[in-house]
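We store chain and fold; example below:
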Amino acid sequence: MSRSLEDLTALVSEVSDTYALRNDIACDDDWYLLKVQEELGELVAEYLRGTGRGRMKGADAAAVRTALEDEAADVLAMLLLFARNNGIDLDAALERKWFKYLGHAPEI
């Protein structure tokens, strides 16, 4: 993937805004965080299925893997939306919180 967080946020925002409009969803402050939690729960469920600790529900390993990847994408998308809604600069936060341990500027 070669898109920046800013580009990803713009794309998922467009999808989210369209979805909310079509389904008459009020995306208030709570909605964004609750959706992160919902999507994380779905990711955990797929992880459990893929590791033999959840019901397969007729799915094969390839379908479970695809579902795991899709749920990971949903978690990321909702986190980007949560950050946008709360004025969080994830690039700056990563630099401050994580990349300081590198001892040098990260290569991009």
Remarks:
- The mean pLDDT is 94.
